[in-house]
Design a protein that fits this description.
Layout: H1 69-78, H2 84-87, H3 90-95, H4 101-107, H5 112-118, H6 131-134, H7 145-150, E1 179-180, E2 186-190, H8 218-229, E3 236-240, H9 249-260, E4 267-272, H10 274-277, H11 284-291, E5 296-301, H12 310-321, E6 326-332, H13 340-352, E7 355-362, H14 376-386, E8 397-402, E9 407-411, E10 416-420, E11 423-427, E12 433-437
Parallel strand pairs: 2-3, 3-4, 4-5, 5-6, 6-7, 7-8
Antiparallel strand pairs: 1-2, 8-9, 10-11, 11-12
Bound molecules: iron/sulfur cluster.
């Protein structure tokens, strides 16, 4: 079978900053027209007050959606005739995803490895990249971190021992299609198999982008909702996919309103990469709608500090201003973000846009992932390089999602150095040993 490109047709194709596509969405008229705005990426902060647009008092960012200078240059070069308003319309971004070899070859010089992979037979994950995210890709360097996360290479076709289609055993813990119930008090609700851009290391590569049609049918959702309703122990529902924020506002609101009527559901989380690969999705209409269903929390999938553009900053600020606590989830990837300095830049940047670094994941052993996976020791080295050397808020939990359904298992560098009489010996971040009186401890017996 040939490599598949953009088989998924996830969203319908309408336009405005404020309202929905999704699989069966109705289109509402635009109520906000974007104008061309140039902002610097976060990596090049301007002095306060230097933005061309004026912020409202108390609002640290301009009211209208920005376009950073390099994205703007990319738009002019590869999408001439496309207005900034269209570019900033998330429906336009979805309609114009880069999904095939020809489209990709127009914007980057494909390496031999990439070309072979794109013509290959076995890749299971489609290729799709939003034009916005493609604007972050280096045209010439095939080893550029962002490029590596979305452009396939031949190593993806190589299946190594220990790799599995469903490494987390989610299918085994699925009481109804599209719902994973592993932990006692919470469920994972797979709302769609569609993402705006596909990450080459995706844990759910066995299912995302597979259908050629959106699988988020109301019939399937109703079965999942019935299960949640009938299971009083479920107090926390994580809406994910695919990417839950590729659903239209109408469909997302339908889900949220149904969940909010279930008395034992205490809060809802949304897992998404949209603020990173499709920040234009964070419209004012979306945040207005989400605010009606608090408490809502959001886990955002970040990979590299180069993702922290003016657009992403704007999207996260809108979400945070809507009262949504934001956390990041990052997969540790070899040659992409596997060093302390890169992670520190990412986490410092996230804190500036009110995203708390939450999880650092060891890469799951999906088929064709060996080129992405680091030794586990690398994750510990990164945590050791952060803890104590920077704010505690900038230090995520490093976890392995245990194969075969073991769940998330946190790993920490060894700060317990031993025991001496009635004291514990503790190693601090500088490697110095300190004694803590602990006469009653049974720790030595553990
Ligand atoms: S956004 Fe998430 S679900 Fe979609 S391809 Fe990336 S990792 Fe997979």
């Amino acid at each position: 079978m040939k490599q598949r490109f953009c088989l998924d047709k996830g969203s319908d194709q309408s336009s405005d900053e404020t309202e929905p596509p999704g699989c069966a969405a109705k289109v509402l008229p635009a109520d906000l027209i974007n104008r061309s705005v140039r902002l610097s990426p976060l990596s090049m902060p301007k002095p306060r007050g230097s933005n061309r647009q004026k912020s409202k008092p108390g609002q640290p960012y301009p009211a209208k959606f920005p376009i950073n200078p390099s994205a703007n240059a990319f738009r002019r070069r590869f999408f001439p005739g496309t207005s900034v308003a269209d570019w900033n319309d998330w429906h336009w971004q979805l309609r114009n995803r880069i999904c095939g070899i020809d489209a990709l070859a127009r914007i980057v010089r494909l390496s031999e490895e990439e070309l072979k992979a794109l013509h290959g037979e076995k890749a299971s994950l489609p290729l799709a990249i939003t034009p916005y995210y493609a604007s972050l890709i280096d045209r010439d360097k095939s080893f550029q971190p962002i490029r590596r996360t979305v452009v396939p290479v031949t190593a993806e076709l190589l299946h190594s021992p220990g790799e599995m289609e469903d490494p987390l055993g989610e299918d085994h813990d699925s009481p109804v299609p599209g719902l994973v119930h592993r932990y006692p008090d919470r469920v994972l609700f797979l709302t769609t198999d569609y993402c705006s851009s596909y990450c080459r290391y995706c844990t759910r590569s066995r299912m995302v982008g597979q259908g050629g049609e959106c699988r988020s049918s109301y019939e399937q959702w109703n079965k999942a909702l019935d299960y949640i309703e009938a299971t009083p122990g479920v107090r926390d529902v994580l809406l994910s996919g695919g990417d839950a924020l590729t659903l239209s506002n109408d469909r997302l609101e339908w889900l949220l309103s149904r969940l909010s009527r279930i008395p034992h559901v205490e809060f809802i989380r949304i897992g998404t990469k949209a603020p990173v690969v499709l920040p234009q999705r964070i419209t004012l209409a979306l945040t207005r709608m989400l605010k009606r269903y608090h408490p809502i929390w959001m886990s955002i999938h970040f990979t590299h500090p180069d993702e922290l553009t003016a657009e992403v900053m704007h999207a996260c600020n809108r979400l945070a201003d809507a009262g949504i606590p934001l956390g990041s989830q990052t997969v540790l990837l070899a040659g992409i973000n596997d060093d302390v300095e890169t992670m520190k830049r990412l986490y410092h940047g996230l804190l500036k846009i009110r995203v708390r670094p939450y999880y650092l994941y060891q890469c799951d052993p999906i088929p064709g992932s060996s080129h992405f996976r680091t030794p586990v020791a690398k994750g510990l080295e990164i945590i050791r390089g952060l803890r104590g050397f920077t704010s505690g808020y900038a230090v995520p939990s490093f976890v392995i999602d245990a194969p075969a359904g073991g769940g998330k298992i946190p790993l920490l560098p060894d700060y317990l150095a031993g025991r001496e009489q009635d004291a514990l010996l503790l190693r601090n971040y500088e490697g110095k040993i300190y004694r803590y009186p602990d006469p009653q401890s049974t720790w030595g017996a553990i």
